[in-house]
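Lecture notes, unit on protein representations.

Consider one protein chain, 482 amino acids long.
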Amino acid sequence: MTSLTKKGSYEETITDVKHEETRVYTEEEYKRVLRKIDVHILPFVSLLYLLSFLDRANIGNARIAGMAVDVHLDGLKYNVVAAVFFIPYAFAEVPSNIALKLFRPSRWIPSIMVAWGIVMTLMCLCNTYEGLIIARVFLGVTEAGLFPGITYYLSLWYRRRDVASRIAIFFSAATVAGAFGGILAYGIEQMEGIGGLHGWQWIFCLEGIVTVLVAGVSYFFMHDYPATAKFFTAEEKEMVIWTLKEDCQGLATHFDRKFVWQAIFDYKTYIQMGIYCGLLTTVYAIALFAPTIVKELGYTAAHAQLLTVPIFVAGCITTLTFGFLSDRYNSRGPFLIGSIVLSMIGFIVLYTQAKAGVAYFGAVLAAMGAYPTIAIDLAWAGSAAGGDVRKGVLIAMVVGTGNLGGVCSSFIYITPPRFHIGHGTILGWLSLSIILSCFAMWDYNRLNKKKIEQCEREGIDASRRDEFKDMGNESPLFRYTI
């Protein structure tokens, strides 16, 4: 068996028919294996999410590239087009994560990518309001499984204390997509009239084709699980498998409906859903309306596309920084609250300041605080669920509910040029996330103390973990990350 010693080493006893051998793995050896996982897993899943976020958020770039005029998106029509994506997206996430567990990730994830890539490509043919709505509904259905699926997928490769920085790297692709999307949209706009299509139609067409091509390659290069990964040596594979087993205290990994119900009826699931909803509402507000907000500060449409780049680059930098610090100190709540406060300062500046330069600085601060919250909170939510299936369902429920917040984001930025309703609503959502985060920290600390007392009172230790393997986070051996 393998265990984490007080000094941070991994001790493994390997027995065969000829002899017994005890091997001690140092922390440096384990970090070397982690780096190997990082190299083979993170760049690939980050690319997939970059394409996903680019495809769902490019509607904002297309809007100021002429789509709103050509398709006659007057009044709240653009808001409806943006919003309808999130409804099927939210409700399809739990079934998708269950399917990911039942089928191989290397088959399920590329398949849904092909589907949404085709939908995105065909959106270039939409030249009516009704057509855009139908396309966005299908885009929401097909794209639903990617983000919760990859978040869950990463939790199957990394310990709970290592996953926040990896989700930060993965999610930073969203900020890169925001920055790259502005540059790409600026360039593609120059294709106006080619093939009888407007520049904004070419944005949908070219980005959709790229998604389909990458999805085709994914079938051959995506790894399923540590136990089947070909890039490990036999010794490395054994180390990773046992370390992950140790991290989850031997809780169940097989599929059973009761684990689904455990997640659904756990009040802590709904606390995390509330936290995340406030955070993702904010992120989608920035992603969908950053070009519009910047344009309303007095810049031309072309300059607005380019001026969104620094906003998302700043968000990328803080996402990585906060994610690594959160893992280093194995702490979630304090870093989450700190990020929220930074974002709130940015939105307060946007709400109160009329000068273009000052307001633009507020937009940068808002993104710097908002984007890190997603990685930290998803790592926190995943660590609050015991067992693979329960974790997958919880993550899907959290992400699904958060994406319903995207519906809210779509309808609050309706009062240009200052957007007081939008900024004020976001400040309210972020305040709710802070309140619920404080409650979660208090509650997890209370439950940990209760479990420690029970273990001491009843003499429960790791040798008895098989007795509790189906209990999920109700197991007395399970500990919450604070």
